[in-house]
Amino acid sequence: MTTVTKEHFDVLVAGGGVAGVCAAIAAARHGCKVALVQDRPVLGGNSSSEIRVPPGGAATPQPWARETGIVEELQLEDRARNHDPIWEGTMNSNWDLVLYEWVRREPNLKLFLNTSVRDAVMASPGKLAAALCAQTGSERTFMLHASVFVDCTGDGTLGAAAGAEFRHGREARSEFGESLAPEQADSKTQGSSIFFRARDVGRPVPFTPPPWAEDYPTEESLHKRSHGMFRRREYSGSASMASADDQTRYKGEYAGYWWIEVGVPYNTISDNHAIR
Questions:
Q1: Spatial contact of 14 and 117, defined as CB atoms under 8 Å apart
Q2: Cis peptide before 265, with omega less than 30 degrees from 0?
Q3: In whole angstroms, what is the distance from residue 86 CA to residue 185 CA?
Q4: Measured in Å, how far apart are the chain's first and last C-alpha atoms?
Q5: pLDDT tens, 98-148?
Q6: φ/ψ (deg, to 5) at 97
Q7: What is the tens place of the pLDDT at every residue in 51-100?
Q8: Does the chain have fewer CB atoms within 10 Å around its N or its C terminus?
Q9: What one-character-per-residue DSSP string does 96-126 give?
Q10: What is the pTM of this model?
Q11: Residue 196: strand pairing partners
């Protein structure tokens, strides 16, 4: 028989990516008793060392603007101790540790790692009372009550479980006057990408793909994808798009490949394992 541990908080944040971490820290600093529920062993979501997509934003392409507040605190601390460049594919566990330390230093914040939201418990129609959560490893089940719930899961897991309205796909061009939207609404979404990096070892290295791997013999096989090689400069904190003629000027690692993506007609949530 599973024992359910009940706990009460002012604020529950579901999802420990950058948005969830910042929301949880902000609430804790304002005096709220906060639960941060993250279904992975590390914080950071896509920016963690598991996925390695760096936190960016409108300030990334140029030096005269930046995002401030908690996210800047986190990035400045990372730069003070982490000497690898920030670039697609180069994020490492130092960033994971910064997020973990920033969360753990808040006395009003309790972190639940390896814990996923499994269901929503309603006080009444339209009013959420608690989140039912399961923690792998410890095999524990938690009933986490709160006055305020913040869904930062990425897929809207808690909101959907609570019956909140949501939209999946693309709206019609006429709905909001968006010139780039399709004429008719559809269920298409951005796909799931295979994100990978490579290292120049200075000599040819044979590669034997697994038998189930898809074969893309030329760049033309990857329709409408950028095929540039992002290669960071040796001993530099920046990365550069290098042409074939420029390769002699660069050493180190190739990173930031977004070439292969699978989406439509698959649903990137319910068909996640089929896509993989």
A1: yes
A2: yes
A3: 37
A4: 34
A5: 999 999 999 999 999 999 999 999 999 999 999 999 999 999 999 999 999
A6: -70, -40
A7: 988 887 766 667 787 888 999 999 999 999 998 877 777 788 999 999 99
A8: N
A9: HHHHHHHHHT-TTEEEETTEEEEEEEEEETT
A10: 0.86
A11: 257
Closest by CA to 46, choosing from 260, 258, 259, is 258
Asked if 193 contacts 261 with a C-beta cutoff of 8 angstroms, the reply is yes
Q: Are 43 and 94 in contact (CB under 8 A)?
A: no
The alpha-helical segments, DSSP class H, found in the chain are: 18-29, 70-81, 93-104, 157-161, 173-176, 272-275
Nearest to 85 by CA among 244, 261, 250, 203: 250
Nearest to 158 by CA among 136, 131, 134, 122: 131
Q: How far is CA 153 from the centre of its chain?
A: 9
Name all domains of the chain by residue range, CATH numbers in brackets.
4-161 (3.50.50.60), 192-275 (no CATH)
Q: What is the pLDDT of residues 191-230, one digit of tens each?
A: 888 887 777 788 999 989 999 888 888 777 776 666 665 5
Reference 102, options 80, 133, 132; nearest CA is 80
Spatial separation of the C-alpha atoms in residues 202 and 221, rounded to whole Å = 27
Structural tokens at position 149:
């719930």
The token duo for 265 is: 């007609």
Three-state DSSP at 48 gives: coil
